[in-house]
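Feature request disguised as a bug: please show the residue count (451) next to Peptidase A1 domain-containing protein in the output. Example input:
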Amino acid sequence: MASSSFTMFLSLLSLLFPFISSSTSTTTLPLSLFNTNPSQDLYSKLTHLASFSLSRANYIKKSQDSSVSTTPLYPHSYGGYSITLGFGTPPQKIPFIIDTGNNFVWFPCTKKYLCTNCSQSIPTFIPKSSSTARVLGCLNPKCGWIHNKTSTKSRCQDCSGPNCKQICPPYTILYGSGSTGGLALVETLDMSNKKIPNFLVGCSMFSSQQPAGNAGLGRGLASLPSQLGVKRFSYCLVSHKFDDAGKSSNLVLDFKGEKTANLSYTVLQKNPVVAGKNALSVYYYVGLRKITVGGQKVKIPYKYLKPDFNGNGGSIVDSGTTFTYMNRYVFEPVFNAFVKQVKGIPRTESIEKITGLRPCFNISRQEKLSLPELKFHFKGGAEMALPLANYFSIAGETDVICLTMITDSGAFGPELSTGPSIILGNFQMQNFLVEFDVRNEKFGFRQQVCK
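Example output, currently without the count:
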């Protein structure tokens, strides 16, 4: 980070604190969905979400180092889902986007929080109003969870002895569609049935294009499940309506890891270990072995279904991505299968150019609609047959529908050759209960109405 940015961080410390120092079995949390531009027409929204999903894929594919509780989970029209958590003493309620592709928890922080290209008011955490907030010291092992590329000696150069007062260096996180930066805190997380002291959380003082804080659910030490000691977590995503109606489902954090009934399971794959790409260790890789369209196997080169020695290839599940991303060598065969099997319904290439989604079909003259079934086949025999609403969406007027999957060979830039080949997004997971069994290294799912 540039010295001018670091100086700015130091000048903002007085906004944080009057002083600086280092320092049941199941919970259910409501899940909630934001709108960065509620006046958009549906063409524009689909274009925005397709672009956002590709930007998110770009971030994931290029990422480098950088008992039960239930919480309401709400969908938002910008394409993500959020929960509300309480931090501090007394607790301050802050919304967080759930993100299985990230392992850090941060909230907008201080009264002077700056967010560029943010179209709505964002609640911020006020450290001075909490008696338990502390800036993280650079000698604290948790500082290494954030700055895992640096040794204690290099990040604490101004320290002398065990009583060092130097703070953990500022962090900067780059996302596909924005960024954030701030200082690390240890603070009390106030759950519905327990309090967790000394929880590592980011106090972000500036962001770009971030509609809320971020609750990283990934596989790293700093993630929400890891810090809580959760054995498994699950969520059921209510349908996308591209609005903020307030309907919610739940994020369930299970501290005992009791088995969930009637789920189809596949084993979580071993994460690739690649020098300089530690972010790959955060993702939930699943063994997607086959895709069928209309019951016919799509011919996908096997090398894209499994990560190679450079960490390129394979499939991950990412709650922070809206539309499923596919490398163009995976997407093109899927695209061609739909074009070949959908007969008697004309394509609308003008809408494809506007939205970046393809294929799009004009259904204005169809009395009834029948489209090929899309099914994902996972290692171990688990199969996910998607409802039509999970892979086709109405675009603009009610006479055009588009496949809600994206690739990098279209309107939004060059091919992304690195990282996962397939990123399974939340749009495709609507009305599925999905479970991440972190203790037994399994991913489970079943179709159901989420509410």
